[in-house]
Design brief:
- The structure is a single chain.
- This protein is an alpha+beta fold.
- The protein starts with 10 loop residues before the first strand and ends with a strand.
- It has 2 helices and 5 strands, in the order ββαββαβ.
- Strands 3-4-2-1-5 form a 5-stranded mixed sheet, covered by helices on one side.
- About 30% of the residues lie in helices and about 30% in strands.
Length: about 90
């Protein structure tokens, strides 16, 4: 049986906007994952979020970067998976 993608306990993440070195384009950076989140699990979560939001993204330094400025769509998706989100703006 495969492991669940969501956290097994309440996990608090920081969501912030970034435009640095991106030609003025906005990305949402999601950071603060516990060590239990291995790279394959982060990649799988990123894949689900990209499909739900219809955007691109990448895993960089244990943080998820999602293209576009869609926090109003992203936050409910994460909360439905058991995360608590703190906005960094």
């Amino acid at each position: 049986p495969s492991e669940p993608l969501g956290p097994t306990f309440q996990e608090r993440l920081l969501l912030r906007r970034s435009t640095a070195h991106r030609g003025g384009k906005t990305v949402l950076v999601l950071e603060g994952f516990s060590p239990a989140w291995t790279n394959p699990k982060l990649e799988a979560l990123l894949h689900e979020l990209k499909a739900s939001l219809g955007c691109g993204g990448t895993v960089k330094d244990r943080a998820l970067e999602l293209q576009g400025d869609q926090p109003d769509r992203l936050i409910p998706l994460l909360e439905s998976r058991g995360f608590t989100i703190k906005r960094g703006w």
